[in-house]
Amino acid sequence: MLPAPARPARPLAAGVTSGVIAGALWGLVFLAPQWLRDFTPLQMSVSRYLAYGLIALLVLAPRWRRAVAPMRAADWWTLAWLSLLGNLLYYVLLGTAVQWAGGAAASLIIGLLPVSVTLVGSRAAGAMRLSALAWPLAACVLGVALVAVQALAGAHDDAHGLGTRLAGLACAFGALLSWTAYSVGNARWLSRRPEISSQDGSLLTGVVTGALALLGAVPAFVSGATHAPADWARFWGVALVIALFASVIGNALWNRSSRLLPLTLVGQMIVFETVFALLYGFLWEQRWPSLLEALAIACLLAGVYGCTAAHVERRRAPA
User: Fold this and answer.
1) C-alpha closest to that of 299 among 103, 149, 146, 154
2) What's the rounded Cα separation, in Å, for the pair 228 and 275?
């Protein structure tokens, strides 16, 4: 019997490309807490997602009825907890981690997302065995470890005490757990609802996230430090840029990637958020990566390449 023809690699390539671009856009969120150090993580999260919700609502308005027609009550509840986990809670925890523990420490912990998502995704029916992904996962872990060594060797400034730094690291691990749950839940929801496009899924998530952000607006902005008008202009400008590029466009690309790729490969795509966060950090600090940082990036990229190659080989294998 002739072997079955290989399944086309086009969806795989499109999914990987979408994941890479989403990671490049998401890397911007690691810079926002550095730009806005005078503002609280709650203020940054609420402003970003208010802007996300407003943009999403404006884009959906002309075709609102058509966009929401496939939605059921269960879908709205799913979007509510996905919005809470993957947007509001995640960004508050991430912003706190960056401000209290430093950008490198936060990015290296978030860099474990490929491993955590892949481990959860490997339990899905028909998923690739972890043994086939052993060396790509090991390469990702090694890359994160190298970034950790660099962060410790760099001896960050001691503006914060040990307790604050430990709390910041705890927030980073909380963000890791929050986004792992979001990534897996989002991919499973999209697979159950193929009639909802990736773009509409992102925009509807934005509308729900914006509604949830309204609940945090009062505690975020009623009390706290006062700022000059120029600072508020910069604050809302950053919020709009992050909302448009990281949330609206980045989330739509991520939904497309989640729809085209298996969870064990989707998990690897998240590594590009870490890679681009590091690259943007180098530009912010106006320096080249150190040898350890360059090796870390190489390991992370090698891990993604190995995981992608394993999935391509599996698709080419005869049925």
Assistant:
1) 146
2) 34
Please say if the pLDDT value at position 197 is more than 50. Answer: yes
Q: Is 147 exposed, middle or buried (0-12, 13-18, 19+ CB in 10 A)?
A: buried
Least confident window among 142-156, 198-212, 237-251, 279-293: 142-156
Long-range contacts of 172-176 (CB under 8 A, 24+ apart): 172/93, 172/94, 172/97, 172/101, 172/105, 172/106, 172/109, 172/110, 173/109, 174/93, 175/90, 175/93, 175/94, 175/97, 175/106, 175/109, 175/110, 176/109, 176/110, 176/112, 176/113, 176/116
pLDDT digit string, tens, across residues 133-142: 778 778 878 8
Q: How far apart are the first and last CA of the chain?
A: 11
H helices, E strands: number in the chain? 16, 0
pLDDT, one tens digit per residue, over 303-318 is: 777 777 776 666 555 5
**Residues 6 or more apart in contact with residue 43 via CB below 8 angstroms:** 220, 221, 224, 235
For residue range 214-235, what is the model confidence (pLDDT) as tens digits? 988 888 888 666 788 889 999 9
Band of residue 122 on the pLDDT scale cut at 50, 70, 90? low
Q: Where are the alpha helices (DSSP H) in 69-193?
A: 73-83, 90-101, 103-110, 113-121, 134-154, 162-192
Distance CA 240, CA 57 (A): 14
Separation between Cα atoms, residue 41 and residue 47, nearest integer Å: 10
